[in-house]
Design goal:
Blueprint (H helix, E strand, L loop, with lengths): L3 H31 L5 H56 L4 H37 L6 H16 L1
């Protein structure tokens, strides 16, 4: 069974990969257009198509980022409850309500369960950061559309 964190990771990685491929295609298109290998009209049409695809990918990434943030909130609550539970275990041990073996057993169980949670939190935070770059990063959410509009106006001005 695939965990929610794995599912989110897979969707995030797919979106990031897809967006980078579109960005690379736009860069190659600009280069080919600049060298005269692609006609301005064809480049404008392709740029508009790729810009639409990029916006679709960005929207999917935005939704995935929202789900990641929601999941992070739940995991952080879980981590907080484990910290509180450990404090209770330590207090019981200090007052003699929990013997040494019981103390070690319960602390070990908490730590064993905490590691995967902490790993998931770390991974999901990194994915959220990377998705943020797709959504608003250097290429920006509006860059494909803005480039398309700029090229369209340049092409129309050349007519």
């Amino acid at each position: 069974m695939v965990s929610l964190a794995e599912e989110l990771r897979n969707r995030a990685e797919d979106g990031i990969r897809e967006y980078r491929a579109i960005r690379d295609q736009l860069e190659k298109l600009s280069s080919l257009e600049a060298s005269g290998e692609v006609a301005p009209g064809a480049a404008t049409e392709i740029r508009e198509e790729l810009g639409g695809k990029a916006r679709d990918v960005q929207e999917r990434c935005r939704k995935t980022a929202g789900e990641i943030e929601e999941t992070l909130g739940k995991l952080e609550v879980e981590m907080g409850s484990r910290v509180k539970e450990r404090e209770v275990i330590e207090a019981k041990h200090k007052i003699g309500a929990l013997d040494e073996d019981g103390y070690r057993e319960r602390v070990a169980a908490l730590e064993t369960g905490a590691d995967p949670i902490e790993d998931s939190v770390t991974e999901l935070r990194e994915l959220a950061r990377r998705l943020g770059e797709v959504i608003t990063g250097p290429e920006g959410a509006d860059k494909p559309a803005a480039e398309s509009e700029k090229k369209r106006s340049e092409y129309k001005g050349a007519e």
